[in-house]
Amino acid sequence: MIYTAKRDSKRFTDQTANRTAIKIQAICYRRLAKRGRRSPYHVLTPCSLSISVESSSGNKWILNIHSGKCFIYVLHQRLQTKNQWARDDPAFVVICSLLLALATVAYCAAYDHSAAHAVSVVISVLLFHFLLAGILLATCCWFLTNAYLREEAPNTCVVEQRVEWLYAFDVHCNSFFPMFVMLYVIHYFLSPLLVAHGFIPALLSNLLFMVAASYHHYLNFLGYDVLPFLERTTFFLYPIGIVIILSPILILSGFNPSRYFMNIYFSRTL
């Protein structure tokens, strides 16, 4: 009974993915037509690896608007064409790294006085905020899903499926990008207000961090919830409750996360 329900759910997911694919392709064609382009372009790395930059950029744009549909569409396309869950090119990681470096350089230009210190800040943000934090988070989620959240096969004839580590890192990248938009781009333009003294700046800063962290965990949940062989994936929503509980405490205590992190990374004292 459970296996039949799971197959019905997978069939519904495939139908939803097909409809979503048609809609997203139509959107992409319209966007390309407006730009005067006809086909996506590729960048060749020194290892002769083809990277679909247009596709990765489109995924980022869709993630901020239709996150659930993006996960279903991308996973369906990979499974149909490559028989794997994870992406096999580093385009998404490269674009995230470049955008993160550009945003950090903008912060350094506004809040730092030393070029050498700015270079160290860019390197540390890329290594710790994105890569090392992503590797740690992906490893934890990869272990938890394979050890505790996989659905048991109804019989021994069914091929056992496991979450790939690269897929877990993909989920981190997809979840990181909307948080990057909120905490690096939007935060940059609001930073003159957010780093000021007073209750209102602390309130706005905590609310921005709360929304960004909650949306990050929600996208992390979506990334694993779409896999048909996982169950109890609502476990990944529990950190949202912790964030919502902690935010009022931090607001009432007068803690301003914007001032805290800006004083840590940049030489200009706020």
UniProtKB/TrEMBL annotation:
InterPro entries on file: UNC-50 (IPR007881)
Subcellular location: Membrane
Keywords carried by this UniProt record: Membrane, Transmembrane, Transmembrane helix
Pfam families in the record: UNC-50
Sequence intervals crossing the membrane: 91-111, 118-145, 165-186, 193-215, 235-255
The keyword Metal-binding is assigned to this record: no
Source superkingdom: Eukaryota
UniProt topology in membrane: Multi-pass membrane protein
One annotated Gene Ontology cellular component of this protein: Golgi membrane
Entry's family note: Belongs to the unc-50 family.
Protein name: UNC-50 family protein
Native source species: Gossypium darwinii (Darwin's cotton)
